[in-house]
Amino acid sequence: MVALTEEERRMLDGEKGPAVTKAMELLVRYADALGAEDFVYTNNIAGVPGSSPQWVKDYYREDGGDYRAVFSRFDLDSDEVVDVPRMNAFSCHLQGGMDPDLWRDQGMSEDAFANFRSDEEQVAAHGIQVLKTCTPYLAGNVPVMGEHCAWMESSAVVFCNSVIGGRTNCEGRESTSAAMLANRIPNWGFHRDDFRKGQHSVQVEVPVHDIFEWGMLGYFVGGAVEDAIPVIEGSVGSPSLIRHKHFGAAAASSGGVEMYHMVGITPEAPDAETAFGGARRGERFVYDAAARRQVYEKLNSMGKDTAVDYVMLGCPHYSAEQIAYAASLLEGRKVHEDCELWIFTSRAVKATAQASGHTEILCRAGAKLMTDTCSAISRAVPEGTRVAAFDSAKQTHYLPAMVGIQGWYGTTAECIDAACTGRWEGRLS
Amino acid sequence: MATITETKPDLVLRGRKVVGGVAEGEALVTRDTISGWGGVDPMSGTIIESHHELRGQSFAGKVLIFPGAKGSSGWSATFHTTKLTDSAPLALVFNVMTTKAALGAVVLRVPSMNEFDRDPTECIETGDWVRVDADAGTLSVWKKRA
Q1: How far is B103 from chain A (nearest CA, A)?
Q2: A330: part of which helix (H) or strand (E)?
Q3: Which residue of A has its CA nearest to B109?
Q4: pLDDT in tens, A180-193
Q5: Out of A56, A153, A227, whose CB is closest to B73?
């Protein structure tokens, strides 16, 4: 049994109301399943609290069929419906649903939009930040080194652990919703020092300097180490937020990597010995020219026809820097009449793009800047899409398989060219 | 099948309780890890991940025996949803502990075990009859008769 502090015992016994009791009950069951000895305090939670499609609300019809019913019965896994107060922890809503303005373009119905709006009003009324993004760290929630967090979203989890040195497991919907009320999460896994040490070695022998190369290296690393912690050394250079973002998302989707070390780059890897917590251990993988070509071919194995009718950028959600770059590539050009270009980001970054004049350039070129979701999350692609192109290894991994289309992986510039010409001409230089 | 468990099991594995309870039924076994969101259709409990050895098969009403969970943080919510669509597994039996598998087992509220003295994905086959007694820490197996 997980050990409880005096305060946790009182929460379980009802001192902070029935919703907190139910949250603690679920967290105790979860901690015991994991074999955790105790809880950590957390005040940084990112999840998808209470949002649900209409059919889930209908399923809980006898419990009221509303946000309260879904939060109680599904999120807290409670047998009874409880009143859900404002959240106690700093709580953020990650991506989901649809674009609040361009939902019709995404193929959503009036009813689905009404349900989406209603959920969002409830989220805000419960004191949850409406970030609506897979990149909370670009939209107002940046943890600090050593901070205990409870985050969902594999690409955000790997960023938090590896790049920032924050501490989170890959949490789920129910654990994050409960933590929003209880400010607790099991002290297991990445919350603990010994768990964060490197398990395998990856030697990089070809230059990896831009987002396209970092994405491919990430895809290679995930395939090599699966869900273990890699320590990457060698010719990886020019680190930046967006390169880490694409590397981590790729490694998390090809393998399930939740933390990585890059020697001399990430904060818990000043040298190999610190990263491994001692001598090098595990297997040694080499990323050389042959491995790089193999990854490129694997990512492009779902591409056949060069006539591209959809270009999707913004997985994980684009940063202001990436939108500015896309706008610079599109300036004075037009998206081809047989092609659509959708760029996904958070509402916060979209506001910046708007103020900076980028949105206008994108619109003039015929591109659409969308928020909240992405093609994979909402299974939303332009009607009739057959062949898509991406600058994200993660989206290339998921979307073609999920919706049954062809897919190409390339640089951002190759993707923008494809959008303007309707032709894929990407190649590995 | 109702009387098979009155006979002596062919095999008894010892393991750790993840979620308590007792359940018995037909085993569905894979040596591939399982993705939740994007890997399982929660409306039917069918594995949909490309290249997965169980692709096209549903775990509804079966004891699911697998190495571990992988992929999106939507793992628990996807498995939780199978409970709403009457396509949940009867029990979970796995090797590697992760937050995904632990939380999924908790919200499914089905008997679940891990950390066995023998690898269950090696010595149990699809179609074998198994009894998961998570409280006693035993997994009893009656091999499928040819």
Answers
A1: 6
A2: helix A320-330
A3: A77
A4: 999 999 999 999 99
A5: A153
Is B58 within 8 Å of B46 (Cβ atoms)? yes
Buried b (16+ CB within 10 A) or exposed e, A268-298: bbeebeebbeeeeeeeebebeeebbeebbeb
Q: Chain A partners of B38 at a C-beta cutoff of 8 Å? A: 376, 398, 402
A301 touches chain B (CB under 8 A): no
What residue type is A230 in one-letter code? Answer: P
Report the candidate in A304, A145, A341, A316 with the shortest Cα–Cα distance to residue A214.
A316
Judging contacts by C-beta atoms under 8 Å, the chain B residues touching residue A93 are none
Residues of chain B positioned with their CB less than 8 A from the CB of A154 = 71-73
Nearest to A169 among B70, B71, B99 (CB): B99
Give residue-wise pLDDT tens across range A366-419.
999 999 999 999 999 999 999 999 999 999 999 998 899 999 999 999 999 999
Q: Which residue has the tokens 């800047």?
A: A369
B106 vs A29: CB contact, 8 Å cut-off? Answer: yes
Burial class (CB in 10 A: 0-12, 13-18, 19+), A157: buried
pLDDT at residue B2, as a whole number:
53
Q: Which residues of chain A have pLDDT under 70?
A: none
Q: How far is B74 from chain A (nearest CA, A)?
A: 6
Q: What angle do CA A108, A109, A114 make, to 5 degrees?
A: 105
Asked if residue A267 has a cis previous peptide bond (ω within 30° of 0), the answer is no
> What structural domains and CATH numbers belong to chain A?
6-193 (3.30.499), 197-298 (no CATH), 300-421 (3.30.499.10)
Using alpha carbons, list the distances in angstroms from residue A354 to A96, A358, A418, B94, B117.
22, 6, 24, 49, 60
Q: Are the Cβ atoms of B106 and A256 closer than 8 angstroms?
A: no
Catalytic positions of B, written as ranges = 72
3-state class of A355 per DSSP?
Answer: helix
Structure tokens at A11: 């929460």
Cβ atoms A342, A98 nearer than 8 A = no
DSSP A103-125: TTTTT--HHHHHHHHHHHHHHHH
Q: What Rg value do the Cα atoms of chain B yield, rounded?
A: 14
Does domain B8-142 match CATH 3.50.50.60?
no
By the CB < 8 Å criterion, does A173 face chain B?
yes
